[in-house]
Amino acid sequence: MNKVLMIGLDGGTFTLLKPLIEEGVMPFLKEFLSDGVNGDLISTLNPLTPPAWVSIYTGRSPEVHGIFDFMRSVAGDGKIVMFRPNNFEDIRCETIWSMISRHGKRVTTLNFFGMSPPQAVNGYLVSGFTTWKHLRSATYPPSLFETMKNLPNFDYKKLGMDIQEEKKAIWGLQEGKYEEWIKMHLERDKSWTDLLCYLMETDPTDLTAIVFDGPDKLQHLFWRYLLPELAENNLGAWDSQIRELCLQYYRQLDDSIERLVRIAGLDTNVIMVSDHGFGSSTEVVYMNEWLAQNGYLKWSEAAEIDPVGRIASDRSRDNKAMMMLDWNNTIAYAKTASSNGIFVKDVNTFGVGITDEEYVEFCTKLRQELLDYRHPVDGGQVFVNVYLNQARMEGKQSVESAPDLTVKLRDGGFVSILRHSEIVRQRKKPEGTHRPNGIFAARGPAIKSGEQLKSLSILDISPLLLYLLDLPVPTDLEGRVPTEILRDEKLINNPVELYGVTQLLEERTNQQEQQISDEEKEALLAQLKLLGYME
């Protein structure tokens, strides 16, 4: 009793799922939604996979858990910014896997971002976003990896990224490779489903959680094939074939969800969440070009005009884009496309930049100039909102990796950090990009039936999971238990209990440092570039 199954759909959005349900592609999801409750789940300020998933499994915002992006900058050679992938060692808060384990309950968690090197849990853990060569060092307990290797009719390598396949995509995915790429994700998500079904059948745990990352990847590359209003009048015979293969992915996803829910049983509460939603992006906004044209940044002599929207292969290594900047004459810059963040140089660190006394006035002025900027052709506001780093504005300590300003574009897309002759360029075809509104759905013995919800916060998920497991909710979690989704008898018999605080993570039991090769790092960057997160 009191078991919980959490199914994560990376990039899951009702904007697409509801039309697919109407089309008959996902019949089990239709049944699931009608039997339980559903509504939007509002993501982090910048709706991006790493900060959003970490907020889901810590119950804390990026300003507290410290994860803002896929990568984080580290000290490079001189003043050049270099990057490395964020990992578990960078997360500053206790995870829900830890909270549950220290209360004596057991957990299975598969394919979540940032869980490598793996945290020791009372159960099973395999981190996501890992190459297959590193799956052994991303798995806990070590015996689970041996089990995965020896499962009959199961290829554990399909769980991870394939270095050579990812590197093929460094220039973008050629149309001739579309089918092969979609089939690779069909096989990968099926492998995760098969592994979780095996674990649920042989050793069920109190909380079982998995992320399917295929929706995000397909929607980035094939949004124009998936969204009915974009696909209806623009597909030839070959395009229709690609759309059908995409639909096959969602049919399989529906089958996977049904398999997991059936195995979990009727006495299990099931919740379904996504880290962010999805929508169309119609233009490219060159953030660093805007900063250059407004006197905050200077390009170096190595900075070439981006002709096609993607960085050339000889500049594809992690720090080369930053070498396009003249650091001695740059005060503010964007590091990555995915963060939508602007970083202000501190004179005390860089020798050139802004003093502590100048910081508030400088950021306030920069924010207003961004908000005042208008598209040169249509006159529309391009930066519809610009968020300041409130902690730094108030002179308080802030997470080092946090940007000083975060922009929200009018089409909801990510910025480009490359050089271009224009600040805004129209895309030839709409592409898929993130939106704040993800999905929440739930069904089970403690959950109401047939209700449409007002939006929940992504920070509410950890408190809800703890409550459904009959565990106290730490008082320092930022979200709440969404009692509006719960049956009255559940709340009467088991009132919400706020008690204690989360534990600090100094006593991490697994201090294994994951060392990834340059080749693997290049493969990871290739995948991020393909999906539009890095340039």
From TrEMBL:
| Pfam family name, one | Phosphodiest
Question: Superkingdom of this entry's organism?
Answer: Bacteria
Q: Name one GO molecular function term.
A: hydrolase activity
In Swiss-Prot or TrEMBL terms, this protein is called Alkaline phosphatase family protein
